């Protein structure tokens, strides 16, 4: 049988390991798991954004091309779907949006919500 002092140390080490494991698991779920849980892939958004960057990445403040960097997901999704449904008039955006699935649009929205405009 183990002395009480040693048993207490073993128990304390197990508690520390458990708490570290719980904290690490929580961190992974919060940082990486939430978008994945909703089926949104920010890396897909980054990949698809190259076509968007052609115009939106070089747009100036006085341009008619809107700034989409930091735009909320809800507004981004609504705008792209409106172009896809031809409810908003812009032949270029209608063509681009027509090729995007709902998952593609969600991934782009997540990416642009957190992306910084290149300088």
Describe the overall structure.
With 119 residues, this protein is mainly alpha-helical. The protein has 2 domains: 1-37; 42-114, Orthogonal Bundle (Cytochrome Bc1 Complex, Chain D, domain 2), CATH 1.10.760. It has 5 helices and no strands. The chain has helices spanning 4-37, 42-56, 73-84, 91-98, 102-114. The termini are far apart.
Instruction: Report the sheet with the most strands, covering strand number, pairing sense and barrel closure.
Output: none
CATH class of the largest domain: Mainly Alpha
The assigned CATH architecture of the largest domain is: Orthogonal Bundle
Mean pLDDT: 81
Termini Cα gap: 68 Å
CATH superfamily of the largest domain: Cytochrome c-like domain
**Spans with pLDDT under 50 lasting ≥5 residues?**
none
Gross morphology = elongated
Number of E-type strands: 0
Key terms:
119 residues, mainly alpha, Cytochrome Bc1 Complex, Chain D, domain 2, 2 domains, 69% helix, 0% strand
Describe how the helices and strands are arranged.
Blueprint: H1 4-37, H2 42-56, H3 73-84, H4 91-98, H5 102-114
Helix pairs in contact: 2-5, 3-4, 3-5
């Amino acid at each position: 049988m183990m002395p009480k002092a040693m048993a207490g140390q073993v128990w304390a080490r197990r508690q520390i390991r458990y708490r570290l494991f719980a904290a690490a698991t929580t961190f992974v779920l919060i940082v990486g798991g939430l978008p994945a849980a909703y089926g949104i892939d920010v890396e897909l958004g980054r990949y698809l954004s190259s076509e968007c960057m052609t115009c939106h990445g070089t747009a100036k403040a006085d341009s008619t091309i809107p700034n989409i960097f930091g735009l909320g997901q809800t507004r981004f999704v609504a705008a792209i779907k409106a172009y896809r449904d031809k409810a908003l008039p812009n032949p270029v955006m209608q063509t681009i949006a027509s090729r995007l699935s709902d998952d593609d649009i969600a991934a782009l929205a997540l990416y642009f919500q957190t992306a910084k405009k290149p300088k």
